[in-house]
Amino acid sequence: VEFVESGGGLVQPGGSLRLSCTVSQITFSLYHITWYRQAPGKEREIIADERGRVRNWPDSVRGRFTISRDNDKNTMYLQITNVRPDDTAVYFCEVAHRSTPGRDTYRGQGIQVAVSL
Question: What is the predicted pLDDT for the residue at 43?
């Protein structure tokens, strides 16, 4: 399974960005999508998940993060608006087969996002 990730980099506070992961060698439509992030010195956290594992959005992301997918392009997206310095992190995309998530789960290498003036 291959991931092509894009959209990260340096962004100013208050700006927006859209992270993308294009996944090949799977039937993308059969997979749930999940986004994680890991800030410097912190544990990795789930920030958006199609399977509903994120029951309550953290206050820090509520209303600012949107996930979407385009099955025709085998691509998943994370839109972030009004970015804040504490959004600085490595963002990971993950796909998990709807029927066999324990066996068929794959994660990208990570997209670095830095928020600074």
Answer: 93
